[in-house]
Design brief:
Blueprint (H helix, E strand, L loop, with lengths): L1 E3 L2 E9 L3 E9 L5 E9 L7 H15 L9 E7 L2 E6 L4 E3 H12 L4 H19 L21 E4 L4 E3 L18 E2 L8 H4 L6 H17 L9 H10 L5 H4 L5 H10 L11 H15 L5 H11 L1 H4 L2 H5 L8 H9 L37 E2 L24
Antiparallel strand pairs: 1-2, 2-3, 3-4, 4-6, 5-6, 7-8, 8-9, 10-11
Helix pairs in contact: 3-5, 3-9, 8-9
Keywords: ATP-binding, Kinase, Nucleotide-binding, Transferase
InterPro entries: Kinase-like_dom_sf, Prot_kinase_dom, Tyr_kinase_AS
Organism: Melittangium boletus DSM 14713
Length: 393
């Protein structure tokens, strides 16, 4: 087991363009210990001031955010010149994976709980947008990467917004030039796809895309190429969710379509407004959509894992990742010349549960220059087939 400063690195979760992400444990006196996620800047980037600035910006931005729907930053520092961020460990899944599992095992994720997840994510976003420095200066923070993989649902029902690695704040934090794209193309606002100046309403649009896809289980703007995706973001028709899934209330259509208005001044002017609209909808429809309902559903949905005694008592060793099972099942059997080689899927010794997905992905690779898009190709909107299980790019 590797020791990094005062942390034990239990397992590598991911490696990205800027850093490595580990499940780690902080140990202290009289038996104190805490599980967390540690993001460490890649060693060869430790001399690159631009990358160091981007890495530190993420910690500074997230460090001023203290909200139950935002994963917390615990520590920032360096060990022998290698910078790191220690952050909250969220035991859960992305909203997309929760939706997929619910469809497969329960038939569907209840409508009220879909609204609860998005309302809670909107609450976290609104807090970030309103955040101020300790001196009282407003940060003007924009997440810029609101996507399903950055909205986590904990097994305890808590919804957490994560990964401010490409966020932008005004003032002293490093700036991103207008015309530079950061974020996932299929979850961008039209103004973001055009490389224009952004504000909080761009994040509202991104969350609107996540909500639309959660309701319909279909990708909204994802196309075969990045350019085609950007063109769809700018100009493709957005169908109301009820057009794709009969039975969705028209009142909810109105909420979704307002969040997805292409003109910023026609959208909800804050994430808080979107949250309030969803809370009002839940009340008017009398849908079971409280956090208590979400907690009960998640405990039932992940009951096999949560009821495992080892999972409850030794989370540093036993973690679960439904995606790993799918990858193992889909992987072709391979043999090597090594006498100890084993075909994928073969069992040797006790079967170990798969690991949990990384909850704090490494920061995005360096930004690409935007291809300025001014129109979308004529024709129908998103393809009719169910693309909800494609990668979230």
């Amino acid at each position: 087991m590797e020791t990094f400063g005062r942390y034990e690195l239990l397992r590598k979760l991911a490696t990205g363009g800027m850093g490595q992400v580990f499940l780690a444990r902080q140990k202290g006196p009289v038996g104190f210990q805490k599980l967390l996620v540690l993001k460490r800047l890649l060693p060869h980037l430790s001399e690159d001031q631009d990358f160091i600035q981007m890495f530190l910006d993420e910690a500074r931005i997230a460090g001023v955010l203290n909200h139950p729907n935002i994963a917390q930053i615990y520590d920032l520092g360096d060990v022998d010149g290698v910078f790191y961020i220690a952050m909250e460990y969220v035991q859960g899944e992305s909203v997309n994976q929760v939706n997929i599992r619910a469809r497969r095992t329960k038939g569907a994720l209840p409508l009220g709980l879909k609204c609860r997840i998005i309302a809670d994510a909107a609450a976290g976003l609104d807090h970030a947008h309103q955040a101020r420095t300790p001196s009282g200066r407003r940060l003007g923070l924009i997440h810029r990467d609101v996507s399903p993989q950055n909205v986590l649902v904990g097994f305890n029902g808590n919804v957490k917004l994560i990964d401010f690695g490409v966020a932008k704040a005004a003032g002293k934090l490093s700036q991103t030039m207008v015309g530079t794209i950061k974020g996932k193309h299929a979850y961008m606002s039209p103004e973001q796809a055009r490389g224009e100046e952004l504000d909080a309403r761009s994040d509202v649009y991104g969350l609107g895309i996540v909500f639309h896809e959660l309701l319909t289980s279909q990708r909204l703007f994802k196309r075969e190429t990045d350019l085609a995706t950007l063109k769809a973001v700018v100009g493709a028709r957005v169908p109301p969710p009820s057009e794709l899934v009969p039975g969705i209330p028209k009142e909810l259509d109105l909420v979704v379509m307002k969040a997805l208005a292409r003109r910023r001044d026609e959208r909800y002017q804050s994430a808080g407004e979107l949250q309030l609209a969803l809370e009002d909808f839940l009340l008017s429809e009398r849908l079971p959509g409280t956090q208590a309902h979400l907690t009960a559903f998640m405990k039932d949905l992940y009951a096999p894992e949560l009821e495992d005694e080892r999972f409850a008592t030794e989370p540093t060793v036993i973690q679960y990742d439904p995606r790993l099972l799918r990858e193992q099942a889909a992987a072709p059997a391979r043999e090597t010349s090594s006498p100890s080689a084993t075909k994928v899927g073969a069992v040797q010794g006790p079967v170990q549960p798969p690991r949990l997905r990384p909850t704090a992905p490494a920061s995005a690779p360096p930004a690409r220059r935007a291809q300025v898009v001014t129109h979308a190709p004529r024709g129908p909107g998103n393809p009719a087939r169910d693309r909800s299980e494609e990668t979230e790019d």
